[in-house]
């Protein structure tokens, strides 16, 4: 094992699972989303804002630092980690991060949310490293519309990535994230549903959320109820089981293998059952997507704090009254998150 891998590999003897992460409302945290970079290789108008690459490189954590923080979170009962971004596949040696994370005692799920553009280069290494969940973003099934939305002529590459992920057999589902925007891709809703249902694919229609740089407008917004009407199929809701404590409501159609899900931050509140935290590539932990409360953890790494010190600090931060948003009527608030940094 070389030095980098040695540093990245979990020191299992250091890990003591004696504490849990519980917020001031009594919600237990078991899921950590880690944004690996703010950089992205797509230019989706509703997400992308220009970022100074040099600034990013200086302030983003190294893989060793990221893994040290993940270790501390896992020692506090986190059992699921998802890598996101920016575009996480732009992160160097991402397979090492997946490997180091999946080796941690207590971890059962290591996931990735990607735009799929580079997936074909990385998939075998990621699967070998222990990746067992995958979400691929795709807002159009039409090559020209894909290019208009993302700024890149990459539709075929993403589609091949999706097919390869499906054929790999490494994932219980290949999940597709589709943000629905009226007048942009809503006419494709029935086609998306038909495509996904005939594969082992879970198409997740996401309500367009007001985020920084998104150009969100009520005329572009389409609610879950309207999306469901457009699908025009008698979908049956799936009984929640397994790891379904997330925001998605899942539906099946007759004997078809695929699934249709809805993530509807505007129409429904997820806060009640929210079990997640978000860690940015700069080492800030956010307790809620729609609230600007954050705590910087990078400085603890810089002063060489021990894993125990970091865990203790995290426990205190999460328990602070108001650090996480209490259950409310709707999930979104007036605060607009910067998706490229917090990772969705
Ligand atoms: N680059 C990766 C990708 O494309 O999946 C990961 C990061 S991206 C920020 C994560 C997810 O957030 C994507 O599925 C994207 O479509 C979604 N997203 C970004 N902006 C959004 C918005 N304003 N409303 C709803 N979803 C959004």
Your description of this structure?
The protein has 344 residues and is of the alpha/beta class. The chain has a single domain (24-342), classed as Aldolase class I (TIM Barrel). The chain is 31% helix and 16% strand. It is built from 12 helices and 12 strands. Strands 7-8-9-6-5-4-3-2-1-10-11-12 form a 12-stranded mixed β-sheet. Strand 2 (80-84), helix 4 (94-102) and strand 3 (109-114) form a beta-alpha-beta unit. Helix 4 (94-102) runs parallel beside helix 5 (119-129) and helix 5 (119-129) packs parallel to helix 7. The radius of gyration is 19 Å and the shape is globular. The two termini are 34 Å apart. The structure holds S-adenosylmethionine. S-adenosylmethionine binds next to strand 3 and strand 5.
What fraction strand? 15-25%
Over all CA atoms, what is the radius of gyration?
19 Å
Count the beta strands.
Answer: 12
Distance between the termini: 34 Å
Strand order of the largest sheet: 7-8-9-6-5-4-3-2-1-10-11-12
Query: CATH H-level name... which superfamily?
Result: Aldolase class I
Keywords, separated by commas or semicolons:
12-stranded mixed β-sheet; TIM Barrel; alpha/beta; disordered N terminus; binds S-adenosylmethionine; 344 residues
Concise account of the structure shown:
This protein is 31% helix and 16% strand. The chain contains twelve helices and twelve strands.
């Amino acid at each position: 094992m070389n030095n980098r891998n040695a540093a990245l590999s979990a020191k299992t003897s250091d890990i003591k699972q004696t504490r849990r992460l519980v917020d001031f409302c009594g919600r237990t945290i078991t899921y950590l989303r880690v944004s690996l970079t703010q950089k992205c290789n797509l230019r989706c108008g509703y997400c992308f804002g220009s970022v100074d690459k040099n600034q990013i490189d200086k302030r983003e954590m190294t893989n060793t630092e990221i893994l040290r923080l993940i270790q501390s979170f896992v020692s506090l009962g986190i059992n699921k980690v998802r890598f996101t971004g920016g575009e996480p596949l732009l992160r160097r040696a991402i397979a090492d991060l997946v490997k180091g994370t999946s080796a941690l005692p207590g971890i059962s799920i290591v996931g990735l949310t990607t735009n799929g553009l580079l997936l074909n280069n990385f998939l075998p290494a990621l699967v070998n490293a222990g990746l067992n969940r995958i979400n691929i973003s795709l807002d159009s099934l039409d090559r020209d519309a894909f290019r208009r939305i993302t700024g890149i002529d990459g539709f075929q590459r993403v589609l091949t990535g999706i097919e390869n992920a499906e054929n790999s057999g490494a994932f219980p589902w290949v999940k597709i994230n589709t943000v629905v925007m009226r007048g942009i891709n809503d006419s494709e809703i029935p086609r998306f549903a038909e495509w996904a249902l005939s594969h082992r694919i879970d198409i997740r229609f996401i309500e367009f959320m007001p985020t920084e740089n998104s150009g969100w407008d009520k005329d572009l917004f389409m609610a879950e109820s309207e999306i469901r009407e457009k699908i025009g199929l008698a979908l049956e809701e799936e009984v929640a089981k397994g790891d379904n404590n997330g925001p998605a409501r899942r539906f099946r159609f007759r004997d078809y293998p695929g699934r249709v899900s809805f993530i509807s931050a505007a129409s429904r509140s997820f806060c009640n059952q929210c079990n997640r935290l978000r860690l940015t590539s700069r080492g800030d932990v956010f307790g809620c997507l729609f609230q600007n409360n954050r705590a910087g953890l990078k400085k603890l790494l810089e002063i060489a704090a021990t894993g125990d010190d970091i865990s203790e600090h995290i426990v205190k931060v999460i328990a602070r009254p108001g650090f996480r948003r209490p259950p409310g009527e709707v999930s979104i608030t007036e605060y607009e998150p910067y998706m490229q940094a917090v990772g969705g």
